[in-house]
Write a structure and sequence with these properties.
The chain is α+β, with helices and mostly antiparallel strands. Helix content is 21%, strand content 39%. The mean pLDDT is 90.
Length: 376
């Protein structure tokens, strides 16, 4: 496997980059407005005429250990023994997310399928329903990682490139086929829970109304204090730990919006009635340690092989908390994986991955998800 990485501030810069024309896969992460420029996809196709071109809008781009904003990061991959294939779907309604996820995975089935990477619209798609559909259709021994596209801290609209110009409502699933390819993955948060556990007594999908019979938004404002005036953006600093019935671990849910009219809170994933939740707050050192631990999980799964490509998908909430320390988590991952691993990725509205090799795939928020690839 050979990897090449480039950074561009404008679409017109792409023509000046020395992108290799014979690569198999071109991964593009960048600012939504740049991705929506009509000239972008033709420029990418001209630069890499044979490549499968995929990518999405972000809340920050990862370029090696650097974290950028408002730019384009292009990562080109030439495989030696791996075939890549993509299927995509246009989601017309969040209610279709589970069905769409299952149908996408079914199209990728093949005896040599090793892994699936999913890039999805981050607003029009119900992330947790999408993951349930993906999980239902996964063949034995294959797993899925990926993330939901971002739009900075604006939460306006998100776009995905699926071998075509960037568009809203798109879900792209990329299959990797090879007997030689090894894939590692891990997803760890690093947030601390505080306050009492509460039961979800009224919700509808990813919209939360009541906790313990009281207004969830009112309760949330009580805990936030002065920070409540900055909702919904301040809610990224205080996600919820969701304890699903029958599960040993929790998943983290982050808030996308609030409604004063019906006193509801909309989250990036479902909050089923009867489940237990607990507020969480940031611990700077544990956030960085979580990213490092996710990278360490990857190395264990590669069984001694050196990682050659690492796709990092982290949450916008972590970026807002860590601020000027944000590159500590990418630097920590790079130190674990070694100099031979090319790092690419983005800050997202949701992360898709198992917690570890033995866990099932889930939708996460506020985690650092690391996926590594090795043909060496």
């Amino acid at each position: 496997m050979q990897t090449f990485q480039f950074q561009a501030e404008r679409v017109s810069d792409i023509a000046q980059l020395a992108l290799p024309q014979d690569v198999h896969w071109l991964l593009v992460f960048g600012n939504r407005k740049l991705l929506q420029e009509p000239a972008l996809f033709p420029a990418l196709r001209q630069a890499c005429p044979q490549a499968l071109i995929t990518g999405c809008s972000t809340a920050g781009e990862i370029y090696g250990t650097e974290v950028l904003d408002g730019q384009l990061v292009l990562t080109a991959v030439r495989f030696s023994q791996t075939r890549v294939r993509m299927v995509m779907a246009q989601s017309d309604s969040a209610a279709d997310s589970r069905t769409v996820g299952s149908a996408l995975l079914a199209q990728l089935h093949d005896a040599q399928l090793r892994h699936v990477l999913v890039l999805s619209d981050g607003i029009q798609v119900n992330g947790s329903e999408l993951v349930q559909g993906l999980r239902e259709a996964l063949p034995r021994g294959v797993n899925v990682t990926g993330g939901l596209a971002g739009d900075g801290a604006d939460f306006g609209s998100t776009v995905v490139i699926a071998n075509a110009p960037a568009a809203e409502g798109v879900i792209a699933a990329i299959g990797f086929y090879s007997e030689q390819l090894r894939v590692g993955f891990g997803s760890i948060g690093g947030w601390d829970a505080f306050g009492p556990e509460r039961v979800i007594t009224r919700s509808a999908g990813n919209v939360l109304f009541d906790l313990d019979g009281e207004s969830a938004l009112g309760l949330y404002k009580t805990y936030l204090g002065p920070q409540a005036e900055k909702l919904p953006s301040s809610a990224l600093l205080f996600p919820l730990a969701l304890h699903l019935p029958g599960a040993d671990t929790y998943v983290v849910r982050t808030i996308l919006g609030v409604s004063e009219e019906d006193q509801s809170m909309t989250f990036a994933g479902d909050l089923p009635q009867g489940a237990r939740v607990q507020l969480m707050k940031a611990n700077f050192n544990r956030l960085v340690d979580g990213a490092i631990a996710a990278a360490e999980d990857n190395l264990l799964q590669l069984h001694g092989r050196p990682p050659e490509l690492a796709i990092l998908i982290s949450c916008i909430g972590r970026k807002l908390v860590l601020q000027q320390r944000i590159e500590e988590e990418t630097e920590g991952v790079a130190e674990v994986l070694g100099a031979g691993a090319r790092l690419a990725g983005f800050y997202s509205y949701g992360e898709i991955a198992p917690h570890s090799a033995l866990a099932r795939c889930e939708l996460h928020n506020q985690t650092m998800t690391v996926t590594t690839f090795s043909e060496a």
